[in-house]
Specification:
Length: 270
């Protein structure tokens, strides 16, 4: 039986993908876990494909790669791997995030002790050790505007959450139980890039599971933040897709300017 199936996306990830994959394999070995890694290669043109082929030769059947000819976004691509995952737990990891055995074992133990925690997210930090805001209340229009223009200030000003339930966690590092995935289903492919993470967390809550933050361990996330450029002048196609995704999220879950009705429907504090 596979203990952990990791799901990683690669899109022009030449700088990160080898470190990411090797960190997973080293973590499995150090933690004495039977693990597999799925990478979905989303049509990169920066040399990532050659790196992945070399890693396949090195790691054999432990590393499975889906080579796509175009960027299919974060949902369709991750779903390819989620369908194939055999592990009792599923680790969703960004290509610019790097696992370590202490964090992996601690998250698995935390989830085993909290069966309702269908999703466990660790503390994320930047490569220089700074705190990264990775869990939050569900987004509203005003909250998203604040995050877009003042994320660094929010990270300095807001205290990190304590261990326990949170509204949602960004999908840079998720540990999902297989039972929670089966109850919730796959990612919503009508969302191309973002906020698929918020949507999935809402659906987890709706399915009777919880999203938990476990800051007792940390994972490095060298965030690329392609949808959050600086200021209005930096708006790009990813920013526009993110905005469209937000509108879809608000319409789908029937909220946008406040959270009270959404919390009642999810029985968030029941």
């Amino acid at each position: 039986m596979i203990d952990v199936s990791a799901v990683v996306l690669s899109f022009n990830s030449k700088r990160y993908i080898e470190t990411c994959v090797c960190s997973l394999m080293a973590s499995y070995d150090a933690a004495s876990l039977k693990g597999e890694v799925f990478v979905v290669e989303n049509g990169s043109i920066d040399g990532s494909v050659d790196i992945l082929k070399g890693l396949q030769a090195r790691f054999g059947e432990r590393l499975k790669v889906f080579y796509l000819t175009e960027n299919t976004g974060t949902t369709r691509s991750r779903n390819l791997a989620l369908r194939a995952a055999q592990g009792r737990s599923v680790l969703v990891l960004d290509s610019d995030a790097y696992m370590n055995p202490e964090a992996l074992l601690a998250m698995l133990a935390y989830q085993a002790g909290n069966p309702k925690a269908g999703l466990v997210a660790p503390k994320l930090i930047y490569p220089d050790g700074r705190f990264q805001l990775s869990v939050d209340v569900f987004p509203t229009v005003s909250r998203k505007i604040k995050r877009y223009f003042a994320l660094r200030e929010l990270e300095k000003r807001e205290s990190p959450a304590e261990a326990g339930p949170v509204d949602y966690a960004i999908s840079a590092c998720w540990l999902l139980s297989k039972a929670a995935v089966e109850a919730t289903g796959l990612l919503d492919e009508r969302i191309f890039y973002s906020p698929e993470d918020v949507d999935y967390c809402i659906r987890l809550w709706r399915a009777g599971y919880q999203v938990h933050y476990y800051p007792g361990v940390s994972v490095v996330h060298d965030a690329q933040e392609i949808s959050r450029p600086k200021g209005l002048a930096g708006i790009n196609k990813f920013t526009i897709r993110h905005a469209k995704g937000l509108l879809y999220l608000f319409l789908k879950h029937r909220y946008g300017f406040g959270l009270s009705a959404l919390y009642r429907r999810l029985r968030r504090f029941a």
